[in-house]
Design a protein that fits this description.
- The complex is a heterodimer of chains A (829) and B (240).
- In chain A, helix 2 runs antiparallel to helix 7.
- Chain A is 55% helix and 17% strand.
- Chain A has 829 residues and is an alpha+beta fold.
- In chain A, the strands form 5 sheets. In chain A, strands 16, 17, 18, 19, 20, 21, 22, 23, 24, 25 and 26 form an 11-stranded mixed β-sheet that branches. A 6-stranded mixed β-barrel of chain A has the order 6-7-12-9-11-10. In chain A, strands 5-14-1-15 form a 4-stranded antiparallel β-sheet.
- Chain B is 36% helix and 27% strand.
- Classes of the chains: A alpha+beta (829), B alpha/beta (240).
- At the A-B interface, helix 1, helix 8, helix 9 and helix 11 of A face helix 1, helix 2 and helix 3 of B.
């Protein structure tokens, strides 16, 4: 059998080209996502300050919630700390030569031209963990600092430093360390560093130097045993995670993005491949019927389809990995460009993503082959032989039932945000949109017939006889029509859903901010946030009515979902409640923000819905650094999209510097004076605030757009594939038309009419399907069922898909019509 | 004749949706008999052939083939039956274009995972006059030659019955006559049982017996028919 399959396969290369293309692209996408995932799981960048530490002990890197024996962890993206008391226990572990505490704090180096480049401050003793050697000068004494080469200073120079929460202070440059570092560095005398760190009972990490002859992995094991699992013990590449906060965030983002992309690609690849294989099987229905007539059993056919699909999957999978590497590099570059990954974040190379991609292609191919075999084998061989060109008029009852059921589920899910205000409802609505799209393709043929009938009159008027032929073809071959329109519906619907979702949430946020911002100005700083003392000073400024210091952070909420723990992360703001009513109106619906003090929290309506919280409820929260916080809900507000879903009192967030201060000031207030007093301070008025907000949204959209473009490109390929196959299959029909006296021009005219029909149906259905979930999400967020999507974006999606659709019909048709009709008829296999 | 029965069809009914294609057909075909089935378009002759050969399942009634109840077989059983005990020849598009003549002929053996007997292949190819063409692709052969390949393929498994559905329908008169002569020789010399659907009175005249169908039921038969007799019967059936 094997050689037979191989020969049949070779003879139908054209038919399997579609499946090959679908699998090749799936493999490229999957191996690229796999590489990104692997990079996200890996280190990303190498350790610098900890490069010589054999082991690094740092705080917990994730939140872990256990309910009823089941646990759920969520990686933390903000730095965590350890109690200082741990130092002694680490030092006591056998094999430890030295345990060096590391306490990092924000440092702004004030330059003469008014700039304030950000650096991290550490104690001089941590230099031995790198180890850093001095290129010039000596170790720092009191009032002295050691910088790296990038600062451009020399020993003996004087520099103004804003370190931690201390006021600007002049330091003398004691020395310069060698090395090209990813972050500027400022090393202080140890006692000074501990003071500037500001938390005497805590430290960030402990760098461990091992005794000579001690294996660092074994030492790490001993440390884990001695310290328990409330700490993170890292060696080798993993040490950089403890060192760089930006890497931690990027790793978590990359993992999340790659994982969700992989899921999407697998589902879409399955759909696309099933479509491609169905078209191929349709082309080969005679061949299959003949094989069955001469005695091939269902198992033979199933095995044949499975075997040839597996062969194609193997080849396409292996070849697809090659561009996959390139694609991963491109993707990572794009993510660096929009700021989702640090510039020096390295791609992690290895064979596992490629192998996994090939494996996934094989699995997808076998699932699709199975589905297609079932469909191919349904008609009895006699039917397949005699009614070769006439398709069965009705869908099977099972297909109609499942289609209607899917449609009902899709509509129900899409309406979820209307009655449930929650992130889950948004997610359910989004998947409801996809389910509706799938339902519409299951019920495709009758919908296509209905649509064709509705458009028939217009087509006949515009295209005359050609239009008449086009509608007749489409009505008689509604399955083929549905097979070509479905990928377009999927492409348009998927893109609109994916673009409309962030656009709708962003527009809700915009609406919230416009309605809720009472502040006239916003004060912001550099990378480390506001210089210390700003919030105190601004309140003393004449003409300032209210000032609210704000820290933006992430908060994790633990809930029990169907008896299993679930950890949700929320954007949160921590504010000083005094004067909040003068700078922001969160739209409080219940309770009052006046009672916001440590031990309490205010929560958005959406989050309250998700966490089923009411006024007086106790929540199980974890702050950005993993600290448990169990507050009572004192207020529920409506403007969560703009201001964050949770509002905490500023005092509970152990961040030394504020991210921003919202200020409501009279026109007479001289905020410029404040900026002059605090180097690095940026004062924005209303317009600048809006601009900054829009810029942030644009960057977020761009970040989401990159993976979407990949998937959309994949769908576009399947659209072209389906249409090209459907047209080339009709060579014989075109030949008959021409033999009956039709000119080449008339055939093309008929196909133009058909492509207009295809595109119109795809655009109408593809637009209608995501409309309901988006409208419902908008209704849930702002109370108005108006989905937001820029007209330009909409036109780009619809235009690109339509243009591709028309080209994929007309170009292969033109090529098919080059053959003389009589040749086309006799060369039929 | 009067030998053992090759095929027995009992009270066969077949409806497609609301259309009745067969309304109670009972028919016996003896071993070594060459039967032609005729009737106007839509008379049910092709449906009868397909049901008798296990390519289609009747709505009710029984089909016995050499003692085996075809209508009681499941899909794998039917596939095995088609593979091992039945041979088929169709009007056209009979061959896999990807395979050469020899592979097309031995296809049923490969599907049955039976060894290919080269001597037998050569004998059958010689029988149908294609021994010099075994390495050719179907596209390189004439219509008549393609039909001979199909016949050789039908014979390779030594089937109990060969079913032919308009085997000469796509051929010109001269080539058709050659194929029909070959079919009759197979019956006369090798005792092959052959059931053929045709609409051509000349083709039907090569059979031992012609069975006429009209509106899904038997409408008489003719033994040792001449083309003229058959044509006359057909005219009557068409007019009724």
């Amino acid at each position: 059998m094997t050689d037979l399959i191989w020969r049949l396969l070779k003879a139908d290369k054209a038919g399997l080209a579609g499946a090959f293309a679908a699998l090749f692209a799936a493999s490229a996408l999957l191996s690229a996502c796999g590489l990104i995932l692997q990079s996200g799981l890996g280190a990303g960048v190498s350790a610098e300050r900890y490069a010589a530490a054999d082991v690094v002990v740092s705080g917990p890197d994730s939140v872990r919630v256990t309910i009823g024996g089941k646990s759920k962890t969520k990686p933390l993206t903000e730095p965590t700390t350890l109690p200082s008391s741990l130092l002694k226990r680490v030092a006591a572990v056998p094999g430890v030569r030295a345990a060096i505490p590391d306490r990092g704090f924000p440092v702004d180096l004030i330059t003469d031209d008014g700039g304030s480049p950000a650096a991290t401050g550490h104690g001089w003793s941590t230099a031995s963990l790198a180890p850093f050697t001095l290129a010039a000068g000596h170790a720092p004494g009191p009032g002295e600092v050691v910088l790296d080469v990038a600062a451009g200073l020399r020993p003996g120079d004087r520099v103004t430093v804003v370190a931690g929460t201390a006021a600007p202070t002049a330091y003398r440059v004691a020395g310069i360390v060698r090395g090209d570092l990813r972050r500027p560095l400022a090393l202080f005398q140890d006692a000074e560093a501990t003071r500037l760190y500001g938390k005497p009972q805590e430290l960030d990490a402990i760098g461990v130097l091992a005794r000579p002859g001690t294996d660092s992995e074994e030492l790490a094991e001993r440390l884990k045993e001695a310290l328990g699992d409330s700490v993170t013990v890292s060696t080798g590449e993993a040490r950089s995670r403890a060192e760089f906060g930006d890497v931690r965030q990027a790793r978590s983002d990359l993992q999340e993005m790659a994982a969700s992309l992989i899921g999407g690609v697998v589902v879409i690849a399955g759909l696309v491949l099933t479509g491609a294989l169905s078209l191929t099987a349709h082309r080969r229905r005679r061949q299959i019927a003949l094989l069955r007539a001469v005695g091939a059993s269902s198992r033979h056919i199933t095995r044949m389809i499975a075997a040839e699909t597996a062969a194609v999957a193997l080849l396409a999978g292996l070849l697809g990995c090659l561009p996959g590497g390139l694609l991963a590099a491109l993707l990572l570059n794009a993510l660096r460009l929009v700021g989702l990954a640090p510039d020096d974040f390295a791609i992690s190379v290895g064979p596992i993503p490629a192998l996994a991609a090939v494996g996934a292609c094989l699995l997808i191919s076998q699932a699709a082959a199975w589905a297609v075999s079932r469909r191919v084998l349904r008609p009895l061989p006699a039917q397949a032989l005699t009614e070769v060109s006439v398709e069965p008029p009705r869908l099977s009852p099972a297909r109609i039932t499942s289609g209607v059921l899917l449609l009902i589920i899709g509509i129900g899910a899409s309406s979820a945000p209307a009655w449930w205000s929650s992130v889950f409802a948004v997610a359910i609505a989004a998947s409801g949109g996809l389910i509706m799209i799938i339902a519409l393709s299951v019920l495709g043929p009758p919908i296509m017939r209905l649509g064709t009938r509705m458009l028939a009159g217009r087509l006949r008027r515009t295209y005359g006889a050609a239009g008449h032929l086009a509608t007749a073809n489409s009505l008689a071959n509604s399955r083929r029509l549905a097979g070509t329109v479905s990928p377009m519906i999927l492409a348009i619907g998927f893109a609109l859903l994916q673009l409309g979702l962030p656009a709708t949430t962003a527009s809700a946020a915009q609406r919230d901010l416009e309605a809720g911002t009472l502040a006239t100005h916003t004060l912001t700083g550099g990378e480390w946030g506001l210089p210390p003392g700003v919030s105190g000073d601004v309140r003393k400024l004449p003409g300032v009515r209210a000032a609210t210091p704000v820290v933006r952070t992430r908060v994790y909420a633990a809930i029990s979902l169907l008896d299993s723990p679930e950890v949700l992360d929320y954007q949160a703001q921590a504010v000083d409640p005094a004067g909040l009513s003068g700078t922001a109106d969160l739209g409080v619906e219940a309770g009052s923000l006046a009672g916001l003090r440590p031990g309490t929290v205010a929560i958005s309506r959406a989050a309250a819905g998700t966490l089923s919280a009411k006024i007086g409820s106790m929540l199980h929260l974890y702050l950005g650094d993993g600290t448990p916080y169990q507050p009572e809900v004192v207020a529920i507000y409506s403007r969560g999209s703009g201001f964050g879903d949770l509002t905490l009192p500023r005092a509970v967030v152990p961040r030394s510097r504020d991210d921003a201060v919202l200020v409501r000031a009279d026109p007479s207030a001289d905020l410029g004076a404040l900026a002059r007093a605090h180097p690095g301070l940026v004062v924005s008025d209303g317009a600048a605030m809006r601009a900054a907000q829009e810029e942030g949204e644009a960057a977020a959209m761009l970040g989401g757009l990159i993976p979407l473009l990949l998937v959309f490109g994949y769908l576009a390929m399947s659209v072209a594939n389906a249409l090209i196959l459907a047209v080339t299959e009709r060579t014989r029909e075109f030949a008959l038309l021409r033999l009956a006296g039709g000119s080449r021009g008339q055939v093309m005219r008929m196909l133009r009419a058909e492509s207009v029909l295809i595109v119109t149906l795809a655009v109408i259905i593809g637009t209608a399907a995501p409309l309901l979930p988006l409208a419902m999400i908008a209704y849930g967020l702002v109370g108005l069922p108006l989905p937001a999507i820029q007209p330009v974006t909409y036109l780009a999606v619809v235009g690109a898909t339509s243009a591709l659709g028309v080209l994929s019909v007309l170009v292969p048709a033109r090529i098919a019509l080059r053959t003389r009709p009589i040749q086309a008829l006799s060369g039929h296999a | 004749m009067g030998a053992a029965l090759a095929v027995r069809v009992e009270e066969l009914h077949k409806t497609y949706g609301k259309v009745a294609a067969l309304t109670g057909v009972t028919l016996e075909i003896a071993d070594g008999e060459f039967v032609a089935m005729m009737g106007p378009s839509g008379s049910g002759k092709s449906t009868l052939l397909h049901c008798a050969a296990g390519l289609d399942t009747p709505s009710s009634g029984r089909v016995l083939l050499g003692g085996v109840e075809v209508t009681a077989l499941d899909e794998p059983g039917l596939a095995a039956l088609r593979r091992e005990r039945i041979g088929f020849v169709f009007q056209a598009y009979n061959l896999l274009q990807a395979l050469d003549v020899a592979d097309n002929i031995t296809l049923p053996l490969r599907l049955a995972e039976r060894p290919v007997d080269e001597a037998k292949l050569m004998a059958i190819a010689a029988r149908v006059g294609l021994d010099s063409r075994l390495g050719h692709r179907p596209a390189e052969l004439s219509g008549g030659q393609q039909q001979r390949v199909a016949l050789a393929r039908a014979l390779i498994t030594d089937p109990e019955v060969v079913f032919a559905d308009e085997p000469t329908g796509a051929l010109d008169t001269r080539t058709a006559r050659e194929v029909l002569t070959l079919l009759r020789e197979l019956v006369d010399e090798a005792g092959q049982t052959l059931v053929m659907v045709t609409h051509d009175p000349v083709a039907a005249s090569y059979a031992h017996r012609v069975v006429f169908l009209a509106d899904g039921h038997l409408a008489g038969e003719a033994l040792r028919p001449t083309p003229e007799q058959v044509a006359e019967r057909m005219t009557q059936l068409g007019a009724s």
